[in-house]
Protein backbone atom coordinates (compact mmCIF):
# COMPACT_ATOMS: atom_id res chain seq x y z
CA UNK A 1 0.00 0.00 0.00
CA UNK A 2 1.47 3.33 -1.05
CA UNK A 3 1.71 6.29 1.31
CA UNK A 4 -0.77 8.20 -0.82
CA UNK A 5 -3.33 5.39 -0.57
CA UNK A 6 -2.73 5.13 3.16
CA UNK A 7 -3.34 8.87 3.62
CA UNK A 8 -6.55 8.66 1.61
CA UNK A 9 -7.66 5.68 3.65
CA UNK A 10 -6.97 7.47 6.93
CA UNK A 11 -8.70 10.58 5.62
CA UNK A 12 -11.74 8.49 4.76
CA UNK A 13 -11.79 6.87 8.20
CA UNK A 14 -11.45 10.23 9.94
CA UNK A 15 -14.32 11.75 7.91
CA UNK A 16 -16.49 8.70 8.62
CA UNK A 17 -15.66 8.96 12.34
CA UNK A 18 -16.57 12.68 12.41
CA UNK A 19 -19.87 11.93 10.67
CA UNK A 20 -20.67 9.19 13.16
CA UNK A 21 -19.95 11.47 16.14
CA UNK A 22 -21.98 14.25 14.60
CA UNK A 23 -24.92 11.90 13.99
CA UNK A 24 -24.86 10.98 17.69
CA UNK A 25 -24.73 14.65 18.71
CA UNK A 26 -27.56 15.50 16.32
CA UNK A 27 -29.72 12.77 17.81
CA UNK A 28 -28.90 14.05 21.31
CA UNK A 29 -29.86 17.63 20.40
CA UNK A 30 -33.11 16.45 18.82
CA UNK A 31 -33.99 14.25 21.78
CA UNK A 32 -33.16 16.95 24.32
CA UNK A 33 -35.28 19.55 22.47
CA UNK A 34 -38.25 19.46 24.91
CA UNK A 35 -35.82 19.75 27.83
CA UNK A 36 -34.33 22.89 26.32
CA UNK A 37 -37.81 24.38 26.04
CA UNK A 38 -38.59 23.39 29.63
CA UNK A 39 -35.34 25.00 30.77
CA UNK A 40 -36.10 28.21 28.84
CA UNK A 41 -39.63 28.38 30.27
CA UNK A 42 -38.33 27.75 33.79
CA UNK A 43 -35.78 30.54 33.47
CA UNK A 44 -38.36 32.99 32.13
CA UNK A 45 -40.90 32.01 34.78
CA UNK A 46 -38.30 32.44 37.51
CA UNK A 47 -37.49 36.01 36.41
CA UNK A 48 -41.16 36.91 36.01
CA UNK A 49 -42.07 35.50 39.42
CA UNK A 50 -39.23 37.34 41.14
CA UNK A 51 -40.08 40.56 39.33
CA UNK A 52 -43.68 40.56 40.55
CA UNK A 53 -42.92 39.37 44.08
CA UNK A 54 -39.76 41.30 44.90
CA UNK A 55 -38.70 43.95 42.35
CA UNK A 56 -41.95 45.75 41.54
CA UNK A 57 -43.25 45.86 45.15
CA UNK A 58 -39.88 47.29 46.22
CA UNK A 59 -40.21 50.18 43.78
CA UNK A 60 -43.90 51.05 43.62
CA UNK A 61 -47.09 50.49 45.52
CA UNK A 62 -49.07 48.17 43.24
CA UNK A 63 -52.24 50.20 43.87
CA UNK A 64 -50.66 53.46 42.72
CA UNK A 65 -50.88 54.80 39.18
CA UNK A 66 -47.17 54.13 38.66
CA UNK A 67 -47.54 50.60 39.96
CA UNK A 68 -50.45 49.88 37.60
CA UNK A 69 -48.54 51.39 34.67
CA UNK A 70 -45.61 49.07 35.35
CA UNK A 71 -47.97 46.13 35.70
CA UNK A 72 -49.40 46.89 32.27
CA UNK A 73 -45.99 47.45 30.65
CA UNK A 74 -44.50 44.25 32.08
CA UNK A 75 -47.59 42.24 31.07
CA UNK A 76 -47.23 43.59 27.52
CA UNK A 77 -43.59 42.55 27.33
CA UNK A 78 -44.34 39.11 28.75
CA UNK A 79 -47.24 38.52 26.38
CA UNK A 80 -45.11 39.39 23.35
CA UNK A 81 -42.26 37.19 24.51
CA UNK A 82 -44.49 34.14 24.95
CA UNK A 83 -46.59 34.80 21.86
CA UNK A 84 -43.55 34.90 19.59
CA UNK A 85 -41.80 32.05 21.39
CA UNK A 86 -44.84 29.81 21.03
CA UNK A 87 -45.33 30.53 17.33
CA UNK A 88 -41.63 30.24 16.57
CA UNK A 89 -41.76 26.72 17.98
CA UNK A 90 -45.08 25.86 16.37
CA UNK A 91 -44.48 27.28 12.89
CA UNK A 92 -42.90 25.03 10.31
CA UNK A 93 -39.92 26.92 8.84
CA UNK A 94 -40.75 25.58 5.36
CA UNK A 95 -39.19 23.17 2.88
CA UNK A 96 -38.66 23.57 -0.88
CA UNK A 97 -41.25 21.96 -3.15
CA UNK A 98 -40.65 18.36 -4.15
CA UNK A 99 -40.33 19.11 -7.82
CA UNK A 100 -38.87 22.21 -9.35
CA UNK A 101 -38.76 22.60 -13.10
CA UNK A 102 -35.12 23.31 -13.86
CA UNK A 103 -35.75 23.69 -17.60
CA UNK A 104 -33.77 22.21 -20.50
CA UNK A 105 -31.19 24.85 -21.18
CA UNK A 106 -28.52 24.53 -18.51
CA UNK A 107 -25.90 26.38 -20.56
CA UNK A 108 -27.04 29.73 -19.18
CA UNK A 109 -26.10 28.53 -15.71
CA UNK A 110 -22.64 27.35 -16.64
CA UNK A 111 -19.72 28.87 -14.83
CA UNK A 112 -16.19 29.39 -16.09
CA UNK A 113 -15.53 25.70 -15.43
CA UNK A 114 -18.40 24.77 -17.78
CA UNK A 115 -20.27 22.91 -15.04
CA UNK A 116 -23.86 24.00 -14.37
CA UNK A 117 -24.05 25.25 -10.79
CA UNK A 118 -27.31 23.67 -9.69
CA UNK A 119 -27.82 23.71 -5.97
CA UNK A 120 -28.95 20.24 -5.15
CA UNK A 121 -29.54 18.34 -1.92
CA UNK A 122 -28.35 14.77 -2.25
CA UNK A 123 -30.24 13.67 0.86
CA UNK A 124 -33.64 15.13 0.00
CA UNK A 125 -32.97 14.63 -3.72
CA UNK A 126 -34.39 17.96 -4.71
CA UNK A 127 -33.01 21.28 -5.87
CA UNK A 128 -32.34 23.99 -3.34
CA UNK A 129 -33.60 27.55 -3.85
CA UNK A 130 -31.36 30.42 -2.76
CA UNK A 131 -30.57 30.44 0.97
CA UNK A 132 -32.11 26.97 1.43
CA UNK A 133 -29.91 24.56 3.37
CA UNK A 134 -30.18 21.02 4.62
CA UNK A 135 -30.59 20.69 8.39
CA UNK A 136 -28.94 17.50 9.55
CA UNK A 137 -30.93 17.57 12.80
CA UNK A 138 -34.36 17.98 11.19
CA UNK A 139 -33.09 15.83 8.31
CA UNK A 140 -34.65 17.94 5.58
CA UNK A 141 -34.02 21.08 3.56
CA UNK A 142 -35.20 24.31 5.17
CA UNK A 143 -36.20 27.42 3.21
CA UNK A 144 -33.99 30.42 4.01
CA UNK A 145 -32.45 28.46 6.84
CA UNK A 146 -30.75 30.55 9.49
CA UNK A 147 -29.84 27.90 12.05
CA UNK A 148 -31.27 25.01 14.03
CA UNK A 149 -32.20 26.41 17.44
CA UNK A 150 -32.27 23.85 20.29
CA UNK A 151 -34.11 26.39 22.50
CA UNK A 152 -36.97 26.33 19.99
CA UNK A 153 -36.62 22.63 19.21
CA UNK A 154 -37.06 23.80 15.64
CA UNK A 155 -35.19 25.19 12.68
CA UNK A 156 -35.27 28.94 12.23
CA UNK A 157 -36.14 29.49 8.60
CA UNK A 158 -38.33 31.36 6.19
CA UNK A 159 -41.70 31.00 7.92
CA UNK A 160 -40.69 31.54 11.55
CA UNK A 161 -37.73 33.91 11.38
CA UNK A 162 -39.95 36.93 12.09
CA UNK A 163 -41.25 35.29 15.29
CA UNK A 164 -37.69 34.45 16.31
CA UNK A 165 -36.49 38.02 15.79
CA UNK A 166 -39.42 39.67 17.60
CA UNK A 167 -39.05 37.15 20.43
CA UNK A 168 -35.40 38.16 20.83
CA UNK A 169 -36.33 41.83 20.69
CA UNK A 170 -39.00 41.63 23.40
CA UNK A 171 -36.92 39.36 25.61
CA UNK A 172 -34.02 41.80 25.31
CA UNK A 173 -36.36 44.72 26.14
CA UNK A 174 -37.79 42.79 29.09
CA UNK A 175 -34.30 42.11 30.46
CA UNK A 176 -33.11 45.70 30.25
CA UNK A 177 -36.41 46.83 31.78
CA UNK A 178 -35.97 44.38 34.69
CA UNK A 179 -32.35 45.41 35.17
CA UNK A 180 -33.36 49.09 35.35
CA UNK A 181 -36.22 48.38 37.75
CA UNK A 182 -34.05 46.22 40.04
CA UNK A 183 -31.34 48.91 40.03
CA UNK A 184 -33.67 51.42 41.70
CA UNK A 185 -33.90 49.68 45.10
CA UNK A 186 -30.37 48.28 44.83
CA UNK A 187 -28.55 51.51 44.03
CA UNK A 188 -31.17 54.20 44.76
CA UNK A 189 -31.08 56.43 47.82
CA UNK A 190 -34.78 57.04 48.38
CA UNK A 191 -35.95 56.15 51.89
CA UNK A 192 -39.21 54.50 50.93
CA UNK A 193 -37.58 51.40 49.46
CA UNK A 194 -38.06 48.36 51.62
CA UNK A 195 -34.39 47.55 52.15
CA UNK A 196 -32.88 46.50 54.41
CA UNK A 197 -35.96 45.79 56.53
CA UNK A 198 -36.76 42.70 54.44
CA UNK A 199 -33.51 40.88 53.61
CA UNK A 200 -35.32 38.06 51.78
CA UNK A 201 -36.76 40.56 49.37
CA UNK A 202 -33.38 42.23 49.00
CA UNK A 203 -31.83 38.90 48.02
CA UNK A 204 -34.63 38.34 45.53
CA UNK A 205 -34.05 41.72 43.91
CA UNK A 206 -30.30 41.13 43.76
CA UNK A 207 -30.77 37.69 42.22
CA UNK A 208 -33.23 39.07 39.63
CA UNK A 209 -30.79 41.85 38.80
CA UNK A 210 -27.87 39.48 38.22
CA UNK A 211 -29.95 36.97 36.24
CA UNK A 212 -31.49 39.64 34.02
CA UNK A 213 -28.15 41.35 33.50
CA UNK A 214 -26.50 38.10 32.39
CA UNK A 215 -29.37 37.37 30.03
CA UNK A 216 -29.31 40.94 28.75
CA UNK A 217 -25.59 40.63 27.91
CA UNK A 218 -26.07 37.41 25.94
CA UNK A 219 -29.17 38.68 24.17
CA UNK A 220 -27.50 41.96 23.20
CA UNK A 221 -24.86 40.01 21.26
CA UNK A 222 -27.40 37.68 19.68
CA UNK A 223 -29.89 40.41 18.81
CA UNK A 224 -27.15 42.69 17.46
CA UNK A 225 -25.92 39.86 15.26
CA UNK A 226 -29.37 39.19 13.83
CA UNK A 227 -30.09 42.87 13.25
CA UNK A 228 -26.86 43.01 11.25
CA UNK A 229 -27.93 39.93 9.25
CA UNK A 230 -31.38 41.38 8.55
CA UNK A 231 -29.99 44.73 7.44
CA UNK A 232 -27.52 43.02 5.09
CA UNK A 233 -30.03 40.41 3.81
CA UNK A 234 -28.12 37.35 4.96
CA UNK A 235 -28.78 34.29 7.05
CA UNK A 236 -26.29 33.02 9.61
CA UNK A 237 -25.25 30.18 7.31
CA UNK A 238 -25.00 32.37 4.22
CA UNK A 239 -22.93 34.94 6.10
CA UNK A 240 -19.98 32.53 6.20
CA UNK A 241 -20.19 31.53 2.53
CA UNK A 242 -20.71 35.18 1.52
CA UNK A 243 -17.66 36.19 3.53
CA UNK A 244 -15.59 33.59 1.72
CA UNK A 245 -16.88 34.74 -1.66
CA UNK A 246 -16.06 38.33 -0.77
CA UNK A 247 -12.51 37.34 0.18
CA UNK A 248 -12.03 35.26 -2.95
CA UNK A 249 -13.30 38.11 -5.13
CA UNK A 250 -11.02 40.60 -3.38
CA UNK A 251 -8.01 38.36 -3.98
CA UNK A 252 -8.79 38.25 -7.69
CA UNK A 253 -9.39 42.00 -7.86
CA UNK A 254 -13.16 41.78 -8.12
CA UNK A 255 -15.97 43.06 -5.95
CA UNK A 256 -18.53 40.60 -4.66
CA UNK A 257 -22.05 41.94 -4.22
CA UNK A 258 -24.85 40.23 -2.34
CA UNK A 259 -27.65 40.40 -4.88
CA UNK A 260 -30.34 40.04 -2.18
CA UNK A 261 -29.15 43.19 -0.40
CA UNK A 262 -31.77 45.75 -1.45
CA UNK A 263 -30.79 48.45 1.04
CA UNK A 264 -31.29 48.48 4.81
CA UNK A 265 -34.93 49.66 4.92
CA UNK A 266 -36.06 47.33 2.14
CA UNK A 267 -34.19 44.42 3.74
CA UNK A 268 -36.03 45.14 6.98
CA UNK A 269 -39.34 45.27 5.15
CA UNK A 270 -38.60 41.98 3.40
CA UNK A 271 -38.41 40.26 6.80
CA UNK A 272 -41.45 41.87 8.41
CA UNK A 273 -43.85 42.17 5.47
CA UNK A 274 -46.50 39.47 5.44
CA UNK A 275 -48.97 38.10 2.92
CA UNK A 276 -51.77 40.01 4.67
CA UNK A 277 -52.25 43.73 4.32
CA UNK A 278 -51.02 46.06 7.03
CA UNK A 279 -48.23 48.36 8.03
CA UNK A 280 -45.02 46.34 8.05
CA UNK A 281 -43.39 47.97 11.10
CA UNK A 282 -46.49 47.23 13.20
CA UNK A 283 -45.50 43.57 12.80
CA UNK A 284 -42.57 44.39 15.12
CA UNK A 285 -44.62 46.20 17.77
CA UNK A 286 -47.78 44.10 17.82
CA UNK A 287 -48.18 40.34 18.16
CA UNK A 288 -49.37 39.20 14.79
CA UNK A 289 -49.70 35.79 13.23
CA UNK A 290 -49.22 35.72 9.46
CA UNK A 291 -47.01 34.03 6.92
CA UNK A 292 -44.18 36.09 5.41
CA UNK A 293 -44.59 37.74 2.05
CA UNK A 294 -43.56 35.58 -0.89
CA UNK A 295 -42.95 31.85 -1.12
CA UNK A 296 -39.45 31.40 0.29
CA UNK A 297 -38.27 30.12 -3.08
CA UNK A 298 -37.94 33.37 -5.01
CA UNK A 299 -36.52 36.49 -3.38
CA UNK A 300 -36.32 40.09 -4.52
CA UNK A 301 -32.95 40.69 -6.08
CA UNK A 302 -31.14 43.86 -7.07
CA UNK A 303 -30.60 42.24 -10.50
CA UNK A 304 -34.19 41.09 -10.92
CA UNK A 305 -36.07 38.16 -9.44
CA UNK A 306 -33.96 35.25 -8.23
CA UNK A 307 -34.45 31.93 -9.94
CA UNK A 308 -36.36 29.20 -8.14
CA UNK A 309 -33.98 26.35 -8.66
CA UNK A 310 -30.55 27.87 -8.80
CA UNK A 311 -28.36 29.87 -6.56
CA UNK A 312 -27.98 33.04 -8.53
CA UNK A 313 -25.03 33.92 -6.31
CA UNK A 314 -23.12 31.34 -8.30
CA UNK A 315 -24.14 32.82 -11.59
CA UNK A 316 -23.70 36.53 -11.38
CA UNK A 317 -20.64 37.92 -13.08
CA UNK A 318 -19.42 39.41 -9.82
CA UNK A 319 -19.28 35.97 -8.28
CA UNK A 320 -16.79 33.23 -8.34
CA UNK A 321 -17.78 29.62 -9.01
CA UNK A 322 -18.53 27.76 -5.84
CA UNK A 323 -15.94 25.26 -4.75
CA UNK A 324 -18.38 23.49 -2.45
CA UNK A 325 -19.15 19.97 -3.52
CA UNK A 326 -22.17 19.96 -1.26
CA UNK A 327 -23.74 22.97 -2.84
CA UNK A 328 -22.47 22.84 -6.37
CA UNK A 329 -22.62 19.21 -7.37
CA UNK A 330 -25.20 17.60 -9.58
CA UNK A 331 -27.23 14.73 -8.13
CA UNK A 332 -25.19 11.63 -7.54
CA UNK A 333 -26.05 8.01 -7.00
CA UNK A 334 -27.53 7.44 -3.53
CA UNK A 335 -25.75 4.15 -3.16
CA UNK A 336 -22.31 5.14 -4.31
CA UNK A 337 -20.35 5.87 -1.16
CA UNK A 338 -17.03 7.38 -2.10
CA UNK A 339 -14.41 9.37 -0.31
CA UNK A 340 -15.59 12.46 -2.17
CA UNK A 341 -19.14 11.92 -1.05
CA UNK A 342 -18.19 11.42 2.59
CA UNK A 343 -16.11 14.58 2.51
CA UNK A 344 -18.93 16.46 0.78
CA UNK A 345 -21.34 15.25 3.44
CA UNK A 346 -18.96 16.40 6.11
CA UNK A 347 -18.63 19.83 4.50
CA UNK A 348 -22.38 20.23 4.16
CA UNK A 349 -22.84 19.30 7.80
CA UNK A 350 -20.33 21.86 8.92
CA UNK A 351 -21.95 24.51 6.78
CA UNK A 352 -25.34 24.04 8.39
CA UNK A 353 -24.04 23.49 11.88
CA UNK A 354 -23.98 27.10 12.94
CA UNK A 355 -26.35 26.70 15.82
CA UNK A 356 -27.11 29.64 18.03
ZN1 LIG B 1 -32.02 18.37 2.08
ZN1 LIG C 1 -33.33 21.84 11.99
TrEMBL record:
<dbReference type="GO" id="GO:0019706">
    <property type="term" value="F:protein-cysteine S-palmitoyltransferase activity"/>
</dbReference>
<dbReference type="GO" id="GO:0016409">
    <property type="term" value="F:palmitoyltransferase activity"/>
</dbReference>
<comment type="similarity">
    <text>Belongs to the DHHC palmitoyltransferase family.</text>
</comment>
<feature type="transmembrane region" description="Helical">
    <location>
        <begin position="67"/>
        <end position="88"/>
    </location>
</feature>
<feature type="transmembrane region" description="Helical">
    <location>
        <begin position="163"/>
        <end position="184"/>
    </location>
</feature>
<feature type="transmembrane region" description="Helical">
    <location>
        <begin position="35"/>
        <end position="52"/>
    </location>
</feature>
<dbReference type="Pfam" id="PF01529">
    <property type="entry name" value="DHHC"/>
</dbReference>
<keyword id="KW-0812">Transmembrane</keyword>
<keyword id="KW-0732">Signal</keyword>
<dbReference type="GO" id="GO:0016020">
    <property type="term" value="C:membrane"/>
</dbReference>
<feature type="transmembrane region" description="Helical">
    <location>
        <begin position="204"/>
        <end position="231"/>
    </location>
</feature>
<keyword id="KW-0808">Transferase</keyword>
<feature type="domain" description="Palmitoyltransferase DHHC">
    <location>
        <begin position="118"/>
        <end position="242"/>
    </location>
</feature>
<keyword id="KW-0012">Acyltransferase</keyword>
<dbReference type="InterPro" id="IPR001594">
    <property type="entry name" value="Palmitoyltrfase_DHHC"/>
</dbReference>
<keyword id="KW-0472">Membrane</keyword>
<feature type="signal peptide">
    <location>
        <begin position="1"/>
        <end position="23"/>
    </location>
</feature>
<dbReference type="InterPro" id="IPR039859">
    <property type="entry name" value="PFA4/ZDH16/20/ERF2-like"/>
</dbReference>
<keyword id="KW-1133">Transmembrane helix</keyword>
<protein>
    <recommendedName>
        <fullName>S-acyltransferase</fullName>
        <ecNumber>2.3.1.225</ecNumber>
    </recommendedName>
</protein>
Amino acid sequence: MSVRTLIRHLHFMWAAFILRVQAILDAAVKTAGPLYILLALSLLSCIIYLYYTTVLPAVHDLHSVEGLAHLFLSAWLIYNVFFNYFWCIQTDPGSPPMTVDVGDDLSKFETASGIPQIRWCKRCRRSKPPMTHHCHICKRCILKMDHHCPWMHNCIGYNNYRYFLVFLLYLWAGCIYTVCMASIPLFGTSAHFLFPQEPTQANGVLFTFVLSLALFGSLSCLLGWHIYLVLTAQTTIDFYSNRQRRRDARRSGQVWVNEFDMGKIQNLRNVFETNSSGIWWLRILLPFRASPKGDGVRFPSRYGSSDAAFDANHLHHHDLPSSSLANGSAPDSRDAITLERVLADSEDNWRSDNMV
